[in-house]
Amino acid sequence: MTYERRAGGFERLGSLGARSLGLPGGRARALDLESAWLHAAGAALARRARVKGLRRGILEIEVVDPAWRGAFVRLLPEIGARIARERPDSPIREVRLVDAPSR
After folding, report:
1. What is the pLDDT of residues 56-92, one digit of tens each?
2. Whole-angstrom Cα distance, residue 93 to residue 91?
């Protein structure tokens, strides 16, 4: 592990992205997606849905509680706009709900 001194002093853990933590590529990407979702949706909404994956620029979200699906349908355009505004270098172009597997 190499250490670099930064002119600005200490930086918050994770501020450089998950790759700076030395994680495997797939896990680092998954953490970046989770972080983008949590930051854009907020803790209350992020608890009620989970990231399924990223396919061709579309962040797929699965709603854990079916009663919240309607709220997510209305809020997804705003959440997608937040991700685009706050993370312009993100590969996420759109946010979409996916159906949970039937039990």
Report:
1. 988 899 998 888 889 999 999 999 888 888 888 888 8
2. 6
Q: H or E element: which one contains 42?
A: none
Can you give the pLDDT at residue 14?
52
Distance in angstroms (rounded) separating the CA atoms of residues 96 and 63: 11
Helical packing angle, 69-86 and 25-41, nearest 10°: 110
Residue 34 · residue 14 · CB < 8 Å:
no
Distance CA 100, CA 96 (A): 13
- Say how far apart CA 16 and CA 77 lie, in whole Å: 27
Closest by Cα among 83, 98, 18 to 52: 98
Name every residue whose Cβ is closer than 8 Å to that of residue 63 and which is 6 or more positions away in sequence: 48, 49, 69, 72, 97, 100
> d(Cα 24, Cα 1) in Å, to the nearest integer?
14
